[in-house]
Amino acid sequence: MNHSVDEAEAAARAGEQPQEEPFVEGSQQDPTAALTAEVEKWKDLALRTAAELDNFRKRSARDMQEARSYANADLLRGLLPVLDTFEMGLEAARIESEQSIVFQGLKMVQGMFSNLLKEFGVDEVPAQGKPFDPNLHEALSQEASDTVPDGTVIRVQRRGYKLKDRLLRPANVVVSSGPAGA
Hints:
By secondary structure, this protein is an alpha+beta fold. It has helices at 3-14, 31-69, 73-96, 101-119; strands spanning 122-124, 137-143, 153-158, 161-163, 166-169, 171-176.
């Protein structure tokens, strides 16, 4: 509430003249300076709000692009066991005869499947002969080896795959423990 208005009303009721506050030079703020400061405050707020909106738009666009890039991850992850089983069938057909029509047909389907995965950004995780990386590989066991250095992948039991830069499935590997008895 404004005290001078209250005082004026009380004085009027009492039949007195309201007291005016004495004017002290310099106590009043320059109205132009006050308005300029207010305008600057609102300009600053407008600029900040515009920057926040721009950042929000950029973040939203980036999030949408990422969602589109990885939208198929669950489907592709679900196809990996199918690919594993298919490759076991291909290996069985190869053992029977690499010249058989069945093997040749399965080999063509495998090539088509591999090309399709590459189109969607799926790549095999490099493992065989590589240093063990817990971010990409899952160690099933360790084996002693005189020829393979300690901590190096000796054998891949199940291939791992990445979708662009994200791991879909780690490679299941056997890792060298170095020479026996060392």
